[in-house]
Amino acid sequence: GHIVVSVARVAEHGDADVADGLPAGDVAVALTDSRAAITWGADALAPGGLGDVWRLLTAIPAARRVGRRSQILARAGAALSGLMVARGGTPGGRLWRRLTRHAPVNIAAAGALLTGWTEAVRVARATPPEPRLHVPWHALEPHQARDLLRDTRTDEEPGGLALLAERSRQRAARLTRTPAAAPARWTRQAAGAVRRELDDPLTPVLATGAVASALLGSLVDALLVVGAMDINAVAGGLQRLRAERALARLAARQQPTARRQVTREHTVTVDAAQLRPGDRISLGSGDVVPADARLLEVDGLEVDESALTGESLPVTKAQDPTPGAPVSRRTCMVFEGTTVVAGRADALVVDTGDRTEAGRAVALAARTPPPAGVQARLQELTRKALPVTLTGGALVTGLSLLRGSPVRRAVSGGVAVAVAAVPEGLPLVATVAQMAAARRLSRRGVLVRTPRTLEALGRVDTVCFDKTGTLTENRLRLVRVATADGTVLAPDAEPAVSVVRLAARACPQEETGEGRRVAHATDEAVLDVAPPDDTWTADGELAFEASRGYAAAVGRDGDADGGALLVVKGAPETVLPACRDLPGDATGTAHTLAGQGLRVLAVARRPCRGTDAGAELDADLADLEFVGLIALADVPRDTSQKLLTELRRAGILPVMLTGDHPETARAIALQLGWPEETGVVTGDELVDMSRSDRARALRGAAVVARVAPEQKLHVVEALQQAGRVVAMAGDGANDAAAIRAADVGVGIEARGSAAARNAADLVLTTGDLSVLVDAVGEGRALWRSVADAVSILIGGNAGEVGFSVLGTLLAGSSPLSTRQLLLVNLLTDMFPAMAVAVTPSDDPATAAHAATGPMGLDVLGAPLLRSIRRRGVTTCLGAVTAYLIGRLTPGTERRSTTMALCGVVGAQLEQTLSGRRHSPLVWATALGSAAVLAALVQTPGVSHFFGCTPLGPVAWLGIALAITLSALAPRLERMERVRHLYDAATRLAEHLGDAARRTRPLLHSGIARPVA
C-alpha cells in the first residue's frame, strides 16, 4: 500500500547491482553530482545531491495541498457559474455580460494558478538542512576530539557583505524586541493562527454560499455568513495563540545558561544557545548540562541522566573512551538536559540544538496526527448534512417551478434554503466548548496548547507514564538496610538504626555560599533518615570519588572510651575485601539487593591506629569491621498511588515505562498499587516481536522495563494499533518522541525538559499529576456537551429545511428568506447552542457513564442521529403549526411568515431549555434570544428589514400554541407508525449521503488527484 522512493548514487565504475536495483522503487531518484555517473533509467536526476532529494520530498505535501485546493476552487467556480446562468446572467451591457459570463470559473482558475505558484516558490526558496557529521565522539580520545573540532571550526570574524548582513540581522532582532514593534508582531501571529483555523471542511462551502448570496443580490446575507465563519476562526486562533505565548513565557523562565571557559582560569556565563561546537565549558554540582560534550577533565563527576535514558540512579563519569557503547553507557560524555549531582568537570562541546541526543529524541516523532474524535466526527456529520441541505434547496427550487414561480425567484429561494441551512456554527461549537474547558483547566494548572486535545482526553482509555520523575520523585531514598548477620530491614527498624547512624557519619559536607551541605545525592538520602548524632565529633573527612570508590570520616564518639574511629561507606566491591572476619553471606546479600535494581553501599569501621586523621584517611583500607549494607532507590511520589487508583476507577488502564531492571520495576509497580499478577515485559523483548505480537503482549503487561526512548515510541504505537486511545505523560527528553506520537501528550513544566514540553499537547504547570484526572473529566464532559449542541444545530437546520419544503408546497415559494433563516441561526446557534456547549449535561446517566468509562465515538453516532431526528421533527412541527395558524387567521402573508419565524425559534429554544433546565447560562441566553426576537419583530423599521411585520396578541397566542404542540412531538416516537416514518426518513438521508459519496469521484474528472 506504500509508494516507495528509491535514492542512490551510482559510481562510474561501481557495482552494477546498484544501477539495476534503482528502478525497483515506484519512483527512482539518481544522484548525479560530480562523484556519480548519470543514470538515464531513473525517473528523476538530482544534480544537487541530497539537497535536491530533500526538495523533491518537500514538494510532495505541497503538491497534495495544491491539488486539494484546486479541486475545491474548481467546484466552487463551476457551481457559481451555473448559478449565474440560472438567474439570467448579470445586469449591464452585452460586453459586460460577455466579460462576466464565466467570471467565477476564470477567477477559480486564477486562484488555483496563484496557489500553485505560491507553493512552488515556497518549495524553491526552502533551504535544505545542513549536512550533519555523525562523529562517534565517545570513541575518541580527548585530544582527538579537540583536533577534529579545531579542523572543522572557523572563528574568523565576518567581513564585507557578510559583516553588513550580520549587523542588519542584529539590528532587526533588536527592533523586534522593542515594545513599539510588539503590536505588529502580535498581529502577524494572530493572523497566522486565524488562517490555520480557517483550514476547515466547512470554510469553502460557506465561502461559496456567501458569494452565491451576493450574486443573488443579498449582500447583507453574504456578510452574515462570512461573519459567522470568521468568528469561529478568530476564537480558535486566539486561544491557540494565547496557549503558545504562555508556553513561550514558561520556556523563557527556564532558559539554561553555561559557564564557558575563556582561559584555563577565567569563565564567563552565557546563554546555552550561544554555545558552539569546540567551546570548552565548566560543570559543577547542580548544573544542568547545556549541550552534548566530551569530557576532558573529571573530578568525581556523577550525572543524573534519567531525563534522557530513564535510569533512575546517577551515572559515574570518566575520561576514558567507550567505543561501541550505547548512550546510557557512554561514561566519557555528558548530554544536554541532564543534571550534575556531584563532582566537577571540564568538557568540550560537540553538539548543540537539535543535533544533541535530546534533539534527536524529539525528531523521532516529528509528525502531524490526522484529525480524530470530535473533529473527525464533525467532519463526517458535515459531509452527511451537506447533501441533505443541498437536496432541500433543490426541492424548494423544483417545487417553486412546478407551482409556476419565475426561474430567478425559484433559484434564489433554493439557494437561500441551501445556504442558510448549512450548519455554519458547527466548527464554532467544538471551539467554544474546548476553549471553555481549557480556561477551567488553566485555573487548575493545566496549560492546553491545542484546544482540540481535550476531546481526545475524553476518549483516552490508556495512560503511559514515564516512571522516573513522573510517578517517582527522581530522588534517591534509603529504602533497605542489611545488618552484619544478613537480615534485611526497613531503615527505621531498631537493629538498622545503628547501621544508618554509622553511614551518616561518613557523609562529608562542604562549605558553600549557602552554608554547609553534602556534595552527593547518596549522602543526602542517608542523612534524611539518620537519627540525631550529637555525640559524634568529626576530626577529618574524605569525600566520595568514583576512582576511590568510598567516602570516609575520622572522629570521636562521646559514648566510647575516647579513641578515634574510622568510618567508611562505599561500593561493596571496594569495602568488603578490606573487612576482616567478613560474614559469608555479605557478598550474596549485596548481589541480591543489587539484582533488585537498588544502589548498594557497604558500611564498615575500625579504631584509628594513630592520632593523625589525615594519615588515617589517606591510608589503604584494611582490617575493617563489617557493619552492614544500605540500599537506596528512587521512591514513588505520595500522590502517585491515589492518581493511579482514580484512573482505574475511571476505566483507564495505566502503563508504567522505565529504564530500570525488571525486578526494580515490578517492586515499584507493587508499591504503586499494581496487582501481584501484573506482567512485566522489557523493551528488547518488544523490539524482537512482530507488530501483532507486540500489541498482544501489551494487553497483558502494564509495566515495561529496560525501555529505550525509541522503544517508548514503539509501545505507544503498539497500543494504538491495538485500538486503544493513548495518553503519554513524561518529563524527560527521552519521553518526547512518545509524547508527540500519543493521542494526548502530557508534559510537566515544573521539573521537565524543554523537549518534553515542546512535544506535549497538555503542560502541567504545577507538576501535580492529580490534575490529569480533572482533565480527563473535562474531556468526557466536552463530548456530551458538544453532542447536545450539535443536535441543536443540525436538528434545527434540518427542521428549517423540512419546513421550507412543506411551505413551498403550500405557498409556491419558501416562506422564510435567507435573511430570516440566518436570523434563526443567529438566535438559536450563536448563543443558546454555545451556552449548551460550555455547560455540563443534566442527564444523570451521562454523568455516571463519564465517571466510569471513556466517551467513545458512539456518543456522536446513533444516539446523536436520533436526537437530530427528534429535534428536526419538533422544529418543523412548530414552524408548520405556527404558519398554518397564521394562514387560517385573518392577516397578510408576511404575518404568516413572521409567525413561522417565531415558531421555528421558539421550538428550538424550548428544546434547548429542556436539555439544560438547571443551567443559569442556558436560561439567560435562551430568554435573551427570545427577547431579542420579540424586539426585532415588534420594532417597525427593523421588522421590515428582516421581512417581518409586528404581531398582535392573537398571533402571539397562536405561536405559543404551536410551540406547546411541538413539545409533544418527542412522545410521538412511541407510536409504531411514527417510528416507521422516522426510520424511512433516516434511510432517505443516508441514501442521499451515499449518493453524494458515490458521485464524488466524478468531480475529479480532468482534475489532478492528490497523491496517495
From TrEMBL:
Keyword hit for Chloroplast: no
MF term (GO), any: ATP hydrolysis activity
According to the lineage, what is the superkingdom? Answer: Bacteria
| Gene Ontology CC entries for this record | plasma membrane
Q: What is its EC number?
A: 3.6.3.-
Reactions the enzyme catalyzes? ATP + H2O = ADP + phosphate + H(+)
Residue ranges occupied by any Cation-transporting P-type ATPase C-terminal domain in the UniProt entry? 814-967
Membrane topology category: Multi-pass membrane protein
Q: Which UniProt keywords apply?
A: ATP-binding, Hydrolase, Membrane, Nucleotide-binding, Translocase, Transmembrane, Transmembrane helix
Q: Which PROSITE patterns does the entry mention?
A: ATPASE_E1_E2
Protein name stated in the entry: Cation-transporting ATPase I
Q: Where in the cell is it found?
A: Cell membrane
UniProt-listed PANTHER family: CALCIUM-TRANSPORTING ATPASE
Q: Where is the P-type ATPase A domain?
A: 255-365
Residues spanning the signal sequence: none
Principal location listed in the UniProt entry: membrane
